[in-house]
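Good day; I would like, with your permission, to put a structural problem before you. A protein sequence and the structure tokens that stand for its backbone fold form the material at issue. Thank you for your consideration; the sequence and its tokens are set out here:
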Amino acid sequence: MIPDDGPAFLELLGEVAEVYGRDKLTPRAARIYFNALEAHSLSAVRAALARHVKANKFFPRPADLLEQIEGSAEDRARAAWRKVLSALSRCGTWESVRFDDPRIHAAVENMGGWIALGGMETKELPFREKDFAAWYAKAERGGADWNTVQGALLGRIAATNRANGHALPPVRDAATGKPLDALPQSSTSGGLGEGTTGTLAATNSAKALVADLTGKVRIGAVA
């Protein structure tokens, strides 16, 4: 949602409050709801409220609506694991990849990294999925974002080139397999790593990635 959605959002919450026979939210409480849900569109919030009203006897908390929109923690972990398997099939571990979810990066790194994950056998899949779900949940609880995880997961070609002092290949989008001209900048840090600013060309992105890989703290250290 955007700030302009505020009035419609307040009206929507007021209507739901009336359904549950309670007073409208105070401005402060409404702001808490808005902040918790602002990553989602007003239409998604409206649909979540409609589903909640049909199935629940009590006024929804922000967490209730987020679960309606995003699914349960188990649902989110399973969806993330499907993305990982799809990227392994699409890109393999020769390529360095970037997912759209920093929690995936945190989980994969704590499982030994992208290259190691690609070495699992079919019979290991159920156990590795369970491991991934546990690490993904920990990353979620720890608030993993692009400032606390690696900007991309290092593949075999990049690892070999780095060891031999050669230029690094571009990072690929895990969802499409297409090379990224530049890694997206963090919304809070202004770049891939400390001191990185502006749009980076593919090669420079990869070089900056190496510096980032050595400077980030793994999410596994988060309590």
